[in-house]
Every structure is written in C-alpha cells, then in structure tokens.
C-alpha cells in the first residue's frame, strides 16, 4: 500500500498492479502488460495450469509452451474444470506451431467435457498429430484403486 501511495504521488498518472506500473485510463491492467516475447519453450511434460480452467490458459499458452505431453487434471464441472475453451485453445495454439510434432494429451479423469471434445474434434486432433490417452487405466495400491496413466520418455 505504501508503495502504491508513493507511486501515485510521485507519478499521478500511474498506479501499481501486481508491482507493475499501469495507466488507470486503460480499461484493464492486462492491456498495459507486455506480451510474451522470445522463442517458444519446448518441454517434455506440462501440466495445463489451474486444472485446465479457462481462468489462466488460452491459445497463447499453447503457442509458447510446446510440450510432448500435456496433463489435464480437471475434474470439477461446477468450476469449469476441465474447460472446453482450454481444450480448443490447445488445437488453436498447436495449429500455429509450423511443425507437426507429436503431442499426447493425458486426462487424469474421464469427464463429459473431455469425452465430448474428443469426439467432436477427433479429425482436427489427427490433422494436428495430437493423441488423447484413454483415462481408463487403473492402479491398485493399498486396497485403493484410482485412474492412472503411464508415461515413458
């Protein structure tokens, strides 16, 4: 708060949002934040942020973070997890990679959203070289069973 007050007094046209000076005349702080720069990042495995919720993930994430495997861990339909918009963003982002690298999507739960997305976009997935693993594998440990997927690198 002290920093915000000092910033406002020393520079009345600007304020701090998450430690970044912004112009209050703009409609949203996002409009003044710098966009991603530099080359994309290639990783073997990436968890889609926030349980595949649309709050933090958009096509730009998939343009910049290029993974061989993406894990979808959402299982809360009431909170939009996983989000159909995020799954569609994967298709949009991957379509702009310019190279046809194999991508595997690993859902940790069998959800209606994931099933519908898979069925409705299957041709596009094939075109983009995206494989979706079935979440029907089961592991039994200490008298408890749960869905699981095996990943080999």
From TrEMBL:
Region Disordered, residue ranges: 1-37
Gene Ontology biological-process annotations: axonogenesis; dendrite development; microtubule cytoskeleton organization; regulation of microtubule depolymerization
Top-rank taxon, per record: Eukaryota
Gene3D superfamilies: Ribonuclease Z/Hydroxyacylglutathione hydrolase-like
Membrane spanning stretches: none
GO CC annotation: cytosol; dendrite; microtubule; microtubule associated complex; neuronal cell body; synapse
N-terminal signal peptide: none
Stored InterPro entries: MAP1, RibonucZ/Hydroxyglut_hydro
GO terms for MF: actin binding; microtubule binding
Bias kind Polar residues: ranges: 20-31
Protein name (database record): MAP1A protein
Gene: Map1a_0
């Amino acid at each position: 708060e002290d920093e915000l007050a000092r910033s406002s007094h020393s520079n009345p046209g600007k304020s701090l949002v998450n430690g970044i000076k912004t112009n209050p005349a703009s409609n949203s702080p996002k409009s003044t934040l710098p966009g991603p720069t530099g080359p994309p990042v290639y990783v073997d495995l990436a968890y889609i942020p926030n349980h595949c919720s649309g709050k933090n993930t958009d096509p730009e994430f998939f343009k910049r973070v290029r993974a061989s495997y993406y894990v979808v861990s959402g299982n809360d339909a009431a909170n939009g997890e996983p989000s159909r918009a995020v799954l569609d963003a994967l298709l949009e982002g991957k379509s702009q990679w310019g190279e046809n690298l194999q991508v595997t999507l690993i859902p940790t739960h069998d959800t209606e959203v994931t099933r519908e997305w898979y069925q409705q976009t299957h041709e596009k997935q094939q075109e983009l070289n995206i494989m979706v693993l079935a979440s029907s594998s089961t592991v039994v440990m200490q008298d408890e069973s749960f869905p699981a997927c095996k990943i080999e690198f």
